[in-house]
Design a protein that fits this description.
This protein is an alpha+beta fold. The chain folds into 3 domains: about 60 residues; about 80 residues, OB fold (Dihydrolipoamide Acetyltransferase, E2P) (Beta Barrel), CATH 2.40.50.320; about 150 residues, Glutaredoxin (3-Layer(aba) Sandwich). The protein is about 25% helix and about 25% strand. β9, α4 and β10 form a beta-alpha-beta unit. α1 packs across α2 and α3 crosses α6. The protein is elongated and about 55 Å long. The relative contact order is 0.13.
Amino acid sequence: MSAKYWTVEFDALIHIKVFAGFFWNEIGPRFLLTPETVGVVPMRKIVLIACLGLALLGCGRPTNPGEAEQHYETRGVVRGFSPDRSTIEIQHENIPGFMPSMTMPFVAREAKEIADLRTGDAIAFRMAVTQKDFWIENVKKIRREDVDVAEPKRTAPVSTEHDARLKEGDEMPPFSLTNQNGERISLDTFRGQAFLLTFVFTRCPVPNFCPRMSNNFEELQSAIKTDSGTLAKTRLLSVTLDPNYDTPKVLSDYAAFHHADPKIWTFATGDEKDIDSLTRAFSVYRQTEGGTISHGLATALINRDGRIEKIWRGNAWTPAEVTEAIQGETK
């Protein structure tokens, strides 16, 4: 193997030093960076990063190829529920080797296990993780003093006329962001063509959150390329939830990992206030916790006139149903 490709692979490890979750899908061969980093990282640092990256890969993926799931026993405090109680929001303890303490939504494998829970309940549960999914099971109530998480700080509610929650039928608000090539983009960039918008961040460690959104978009991109009708004119926009880390260069590498065609699929970052404006508009929760980001999910279809046709909340949507919605878009 040439020196250039050794450097490329080690540079990939630099990107996974915090969480292995970024590479839940086919680690290694698919993620190749440009050779411009040759000689930038000292050899001792490369070796250290390589060891750290390999150790994290061992924690984040099954060591036995035949093993379908990884399990983590943990505890937490219930912080809320979705309106239909299909998901439960839990502030969980630090999970060594996998995830720091944070507040995030979970799906219970057995809905009856969370049926009688209330906000504020302390629980013990098992977290199950595969390469493509993530859920909780064996949920049991425990004493609050047995859970090692601090009570969240009270923050002022964010609610202004400008940041009112968007609904289907509303006009898409204007935005100004920077794409993976360092170019400015705005709502006018997509004017005259339908586009699908979602929120992700490149270091997301949970396989059925950001990685699923990006995998879904990759599948949609393939469908767009093979279509000759309405779908063929649709564009994709992934907006980062982590603008401080996800620079245009990082997004460019992430786009390459997902085989993104820049003519179809745009990744965007921006100032904190610009990202906040969009996340608030779509009611997407976003907060830095324990070195990563706790967040919600929303994906929206905006028609060619700049009006919101459909909003999918959470991660349950499929490329097939989005494709159907795009093809049924009012002309």
